[in-house]
Amino acid sequence: MSENRPNPSPDCVRIITTGGTIDKIYFDARSEFEVGDPVIGTVLEEALVGLPWVIEPLMQKDSLEMSDQDRERIREAVHSSSERHILITHGTDTMSDTAAAIGDTCGKVVVLTGSLSPARFRSTDAIFNIGAAFAAVQALPPGTWVFMNGQVFPAGQVRKNRETNRFEGL
Questions:
Q1: 158 bridge partner residues
Q2: Which Pfam families would you find in this protein's record (predicted)?
Q3: How much is the pTM?
Q4: In Å, how far are 48, 85, 157 from 153, measured between CA atoms?
Q5: β-strand pairing of 85-89 with 13-19
Q6: Is residue 110 part of a domain?
């Protein structure tokens, strides 16, 4: 686990990373993308975020490869967390499924976000999504939420429209 403060406060944000496009890196020699190490810590440090946070790298998977067991692992990580505010980075293709699978949050605020292009790219939505989701997890009421495309959606009421490459309410 990595954190930005040695002794996180009770208002600490737990960040659970699961992989997805947000963490993808390009291997030029093989002309393919793979999920790399989490980038969110670097993004938050560069943004001079003052609220304490701790990173829990849970898995490094493309969301299309996630199973029901992986979603259960994420749900268990949420429920076992001592923090009240949890931000999850996730691949966009099945983010809505995972948000719905988290279920009751026991009074915690959980926000899932990802990106449509890798955070390491010059032109990416990742930086905006991370910053907005970090703010949203502090401001929203308890429950599970998805932040994408400048909007907050309640879990179970959102889907990714693959034709437009955008998230939309149901």
A1: 169
A2: Asparaginase
A3: 0.88
A4: 27, 17, 7
A5: parallel
A6: yes
3-class DSSP state for residue 131? helix
- 97: amino acid identity, one letter: D
Range of the domain at 35: 7-169
CATH number at residue 55: 3.40.50.1170
Assign 138 to helix, strand or coil. helix
What pLDDT digit, counting tens, does each position of 91-100 carry?
999 999 999 9
Residue 1 belongs to some domain of the structure? no
The pLDDT tens digits of the residues spanning 112-152 come to: 999 987 776 677 889 999 999 999 999 999 999 999 999 99
Do residues 9 and 52 make contact, with C-beta atoms less than 8 angstroms apart? yes
- What token pair was written down for 144? 């599970």
Between strands 158-161 and 166-169, the pairing is antiparallel
6, two tokens: 């040695």
From 46, 48, 52, select the one nearest 137 (Cα to Cα): 52
Identify which of 105, 109, 107 has the alpha carbon closest to the alpha carbon of residue 152.
109
Total number of domains constituting the chain: 1
